[in-house]
Amino acid sequence: MILSKPTKFFLFVASLALADGRAADVDLEKAVGSLITAEKAYAKLAGAKGFREASISVFADDAVIFALNAVNGKKFWREARKLLQ
């Protein structure tokens, strides 16, 4: 089965929430709902500003993304601007 990157990410986070739910009382519906709300807000921002600008604006300063190797997300997208111009 071929899954998109956002789907894989969602399943990964959901599995972490489920695993953590065994160790502590966690409202899984609330956790997953929060994740879905954040993903929809990010998608809306990306639609308005573009994926690169949305990523730069929402990533933490120490966010890590995987672009062949683990790299700083903000730095990657800021440098991608130079490549795209």
Question: Could you please describe the fold and organization of this structure?
Answer:
- A hairpin with a 1-residue loop joins strand 1 and strand 2 (69-72).
- This protein has a two-stranded antiparallel sheet with strand order 1-2.
- It has two domains: 1-49, no CATH class; 51-85, no CATH class.
- The protein is globular.
- Helix 2 (28-49) packs across helix 3 (51-58) and helix 3 (51-58) packs antiparallel against helix 4.
- It is built from four helices and two strands; from the N terminus they run αααββα.
- It has helices at 5-23, 28-49, 51-58, 73-84; strands at residues 64-67, 69-72.
- The mean pLDDT is 81.
- By secondary structure, it is mostly helical.
- 72% of the residues lie in helices and 9% in strands.
